[in-house]
Amino acid sequence: MPSSLTGRTAVTFGFVGLFIVMMNETDRTCRAEDRGAAVRVAICDDSKKPGNGPANLLRILTPDSGFSAERITSEEIRRGRLDGFDVLIMPGGSGSKQAERLQASGREKIREFVRSGGGYVGICAGSYLASSHYDWSLGLINARVWDRAHWARGGGEVSIRMKDPGWQLLGRGGSIPVHYNQGPLMVPDDESSLPGYEVLATFDSEVASKGAQPGSMTGTHAIIRSMFGEGHVICYSPHPEVAGGPNDLIAAGVRWAGHGRSRARAGRSPPSKPVSSGI
To answer: How far apart are CA 100 and CA 46, in angstroms?
Structure first.
């Protein structure tokens, strides 16, 4: 990441003490209850047959792994079907097209769902959608897109570097190869109504084609998480869900995102909400 962002990042995460303590408490509780109630997962997919992303997610999020996953459409979201789920996944594709298909009413349904304790998982396009960057974004997480002019920078295998919170939550450390295809280079935004986010992984290598400046991707944030109201939000820029990829990173993130609602259904009180002291 360019050095000009270093100070901004430090300011954004200056509140992190209490927030991280509470997040880590939730992580420990979530791991201890992995075999509890199945996490009910909605995967938004408007295609007639499952696209590659949704098909991979259905392969990973099985009953044997503690999930009950199914595809739902943007129209079903507008009709209120999210009430029957613990977590929504917005997969790869086009963030602006996802927003268009959801329409304003569907986007508000998602905000209401997460605000009231539902989980949100964004993958690539779904992370663009979750950000606070665009006028069509959901504004679920205080992130903007770095080098927006070169968002279509190409794809290929890159390495991500897990941070300590990412190792604790997702179960892996070090440098991990993962597929990337023009996902957002996430950096902190300055929306006063949203808490800062926690970095779980950064990009350790890059794709720099189609006019993208070499060096602009390395060090930006690849996986981040935060809270929106009572709900958990986690965003992946790359594609850990592809066949042969680090699929466990997705399973762990989805489990964390859906933890609040699945815990409540099992008759246990949800964990304490992380509290931000401000940005």
So the answer is: 12
